[in-house]
Amino acid sequence: MRKSHPVRRVVLTAAATVSGIVLLLSLKPASDPSSAQAAGGALPQGGAQAAAGTTVTGEAARTQYGAVQVRLTVRDGRITGAEAVQAPKGGRSDQITSMAVPRLNREAVAAQSAEIDAVSGATYTSAGYRQSLQSALDQVKAGGPGGGSGGAQGAARTVTGDVARTQYGPVQVRVTVSGGRIVRAEAVQAPKGGHSDEVTATAVPKLGQEAVAAQSADIDAVSGATYTSAGYRQSLQSALDRAGG
Amino acid sequence: MTTTLAGGRAARRQTMRRIRPRRSPAVPLLLALWAGAAGVLWLWWRNTPSIADDTGRILNAGRITGLLAGYLMALVVLQMARVPALERRVGSDRVARWHAMTGRYTLCLVLAHVFLTMWGYALQGGRSLGDIVGQTVDSVQQLPDMGKAALGTGLLVVIGLVSVGAVRRRLPYDLWYHVHLLTYAAVFLTFWHQISTGNDFAVEPAAKTFWYGLYGAVTALLLWYRVLTPLRLNLRHRMRVEAVIEETPGIVSVLIGGRRLHRMGAEAGQFFRWRFLAPGMRFSSHPYSLSAAPRPELLRITVKAIGDHSARLRELTPGTRVWAEGPYGALTAQRRSRGKVLLVAGGVGITPMRALFETLPGAAGDITLLYRANSTQDLALWDELARIAEERGARLMYAVNSPDGERPDISAERLREKVPDIEAHDVFLCGPPGFAQSVYEALRGAGVPARRIHHESFEM
Q1: pLDDT per residue as tens digits for the range A36-60
Q2: Among A228, B21, B185, B318, which has the highest number of CB atoms less than 10 A from its own CB?
Q3: Interchain CB contact of B44 with A (< 8 Å)
């Protein structure tokens, strides 16, 4: 029955907890150098380069954490842009995807083939990426060695809209137009992090479907995602303006 | 029926046992607790490649506190599951103190987790810290299972508030107890958001399985030991009040009859939680120690009528049905490591000491009982004690206030004088907190090592 010192105990426990957590946080690196580079390099790629060439989408590759699907922008027989239309999402997968996909995109453009290195910590995503990339390259080849325009989706082109700023982050829409019709709409950028991930994951696919169905920017907002919907419409309108209606 | 319950066969059997000290499993259990906490932190560590900025730091601090809170929450409930290893080996009193400490700490972690996470989300969404309330409302509306979690957290805060010492002392015990039962609802409500929004559970199926396992195991133990075990006990033994006897002014014994009561496994020094199915008493149970070794058809508890509940015990009528849970408590012969034993009782603390005095194995002269009371009239059960002392060749001493109200001298010197080889004794101590504390210090002063002073205290 030792004497108890409640105040001392409270102070010590609080101090130990706080310093433990601070220590743990400070031991983590500020960022993965590779992912920082990738983030810097990824943005321009989505814009100017992709807008001009032909796009070819590979088949979706299933991985343990979700599907990976790669779309290439091919111009004069060269891969000028690579991006993942689908990648594992939710929870930690968001982190892995945001770290690995930009790197894989750069690797694909640099290698001009599916022989790219796996990103460490993203083995499954890398494997899926390579698989889908290979299938996209196969399509490019099948469409004719000289130019991508003869491919299966050769007539399609992509147009990226302006970035629309919302309270939760930027929204940027890219539409794929084929034969004067919107065949696909997707968000190149959308609010990320925390609960925005949830909202984005539910709202963006719906908005994409709506855009294809409406063939215009006159689409309904998704409830619970008012800001994202508004930004989406805005960027979609600018993409459609650019595509010429 | 006489008040004397001495000399039963069960009691005699217990006196014949060999001295076999058993170590309390407290240390391995605490090590397991820390290992679990380390495992939870490792889970976070593994799933966090980098932290970019202050927002990341805040969010990750929120994740760490959340993971730890989720882990400890399961243990807080486990500590109240009445698992025999905890109740009988570590000791109900110590486990209750662990429970209170862990509970307070967990609640603090929960609040830190809510604040840090909402702050981080607010920063991420480009809001200011001031808009944290708006952020919380949004998150509760938009994220899965967050409505439940918010409700559960609210309950936890209420439970925490009524458990603060100053508030708790002012509330009726029953009210406090029933509010406390809401903990189960709160834990249930807060569980689901851990799984559905927890980053570490989304990516690590193994972590998710472990989490379900942890909570599932605790639920199973809870059902087994708090529901099924008491149900079986009471269906088997069918206890009823036989008689209520006033031992001294203010101290009553309740004799409880039933079937094969010696088969309940109760040892001297242990207690049951009693619920008397009489008007106004059926909704709360109270811990009272056995004051004699159980006989096949009779148990006895001896209680000081001070609180609401204990005062009502006098009005119990024979035939009232009794619901008991137990036996609990680790202040038993198991604690003993030496041949010689000194029992020190203060006031109604005589109850478990009386049972031990009769049943502790020992030759003549091995067992000594020191009984402190205000006056000789307050020495409850004295006749019985004197008879046991005579039969066993045990020493029996009392210390009461002098006629002018002066308190007896229970100092290290005095103890040494009365029990010359006191440092060779195991000491069992039971009494009001102030008394226990002063005797403890006197015993230490007289040279009794702390590990051989066995004490049970339900003070938080």
Answers
A1: 333 333 333 333 333 346 778 888 8
A2: A228
A3: yes
How many inter-chain contacts (A to B, CB under 8 Å) are there? 87
* Residue B242: count of CB within 10 angstroms of its CB: 20
What is the DSSP secondary structure assignment for residue A186, as one 8-state letter?
A: E
What is the identity of the amino acid at B22? R
Model pTM above 0.90 = no
A103 vs chain B: nearest CA distance in angstroms? 16
Q: CA-CA distance, B413 to B441, in Å (whole number)?
A: 12
**Does B264 reside within a domain?**
no
CATH number, domain A35-150: 3.90.1010.20
**pLDDT (tens digit, 9 = 90+) per residue, A162-178?**
888 877 888 989 888 87
Q: Categorize the per-residue pLDDT at A2 as very low, low, confident or very high, splitting at 50, 70 and 90.
A: low
B300 close to B255: Cβ distance less than 8 angstroms = yes
- More confident site: B457 or A231: A231
| Residue among B50, B201, B437 whose CB faces A30 most closely | B50
CATH of the domain at B108: 1.20.120
- Domain residues for B83? 26-231
- Closest-CA distance, B143 to chain A, in angstroms, reads 6
**Nearest residue to B400 (alpha-carbon basis) of B377, B375, B378:** B375
Preferred mutation among A92, A93, A168, A227 to probe B, highest tally of B CBs within 10 A: A92
Interface check for A198 against chain B (CB to CB < 8 A): the answer is yes
- β-sheet bridge partners, residue B287: B273
Domain boundaries, chain A: 35-150, 157-243
Alpha-carbon distance A215 to nearest alpha carbon in chain B (angstroms): 29
Q: Does the A157-243 domain belong in CATH 1.10.8.60?
A: no
Strand ranges (E), chain A: 54-57, 61-63, 66-75, 78-86, 157-160, 164-166, 169-178, 181-189
In a domain, B247, yes or no: no
Count of domains in chain B? Answer: 2
Domain assignment of residue B92, yes or no: yes
Q: Which residues of B347-378 are buried (b: 16+ CB within 10 A; e: fewer)?
A: bbbbbbbbbbbbbbbbeeebbbbbbbbeeeeb
Domain match, B46 and B187 both: yes
The reply to whether B376 falls in a domain is yes
Report chain A residues whose CB lies below 8 A from the CB of B144: 198
Between chains, do B142 and A28 touch, taking CB under 8 Å as contact? no
Mean pLDDT for B86-91 is 91
Pair B348, B224 in one domain = no
ipTM of the complex, rounded to two decimals:
0.83
Kindly report which listed range (A112-126, B339-353, B374-388, B429-443) carries the lowest average pLDDT score: A112-126
